[in-house]
Amino acid sequence: MDKQTLLVVCVGLVCALPVRVSADKAAELAALLQDPMATISAIETDSKVGFRAGPKNDKSYRFEVQPVHAFVVEELGVSIIPRASIPFIGITSTTDLPGLANPEDRDSGIEDKGRQWGLGDIVTQVWVAPLGQEGFVKWGLGPQISWRTRSDNDVAGAGGGAGPSAVLVGDSGPWAYSILGGHLWGFDGDFSTTSLQPSLFFNFKSMPGAYLYYNNTVSYDHKTKGGNGNSWAVPLGMGIGRTLDMGEGHALDLRVGGYYFPSWGRSKGNPDYEAQLNVGWMFPR
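-> structure tokens emitted (285 positions)
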């Protein structure tokens, strides 16, 4: 089965999933999972397969586990939202992915060892947001920290590092939108990357819990990956998703999408195309 057929099958399965609850409940659950500042407890997974990566047209793989547990501190008048990104990566010596260290700083930039799999460097973020925000957008600010958790230098990220991060969230009618931004420096001076993660959702009133979306990361590597003068990673595309009520405060969110990296929006080792599958589970509070 080729990647286009697989994508069509996944979209069909997402659309065919039944809704167990009322329209109001389905819309409420979808809104919570589309809001990175919502007071929820959840675990999300983000699976990406890159196609035609590097000069040998290889595949690249990135699977991230993203836990979040937000809570309110009424005495201080703020909500605190800790999040983490735990990456598992599969990459060859001729391929590259946004968020990884420069190829010459990885073992794969020295010798061809075939495809390497492993745990990358974990990044945590903690946003602090004032309670009672009203208006067009809500906002939060906080630090992000990279931890040297790599299982191998082939899948190295920033290693030990830190930087600022921020989030803006809003909605209007069937639309929900947010943007996560920040900069991460490596303590060893070899990593410096700015990233923006814009999200845009259009929720269908005729099919509560179903939506079209864009959700991916645009990044700029200030160290110029691969030495080819192109530091941008700019994915263009969209996807479809569905949020389901699983009862007793549990919710399941499924998304499938496809993205293209134009020539001006990728370095020479990055993939041309990317298939994305997200699975999220929200727990009762």
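Residues 5-9 have pLDDT under 50 and may be disordered.
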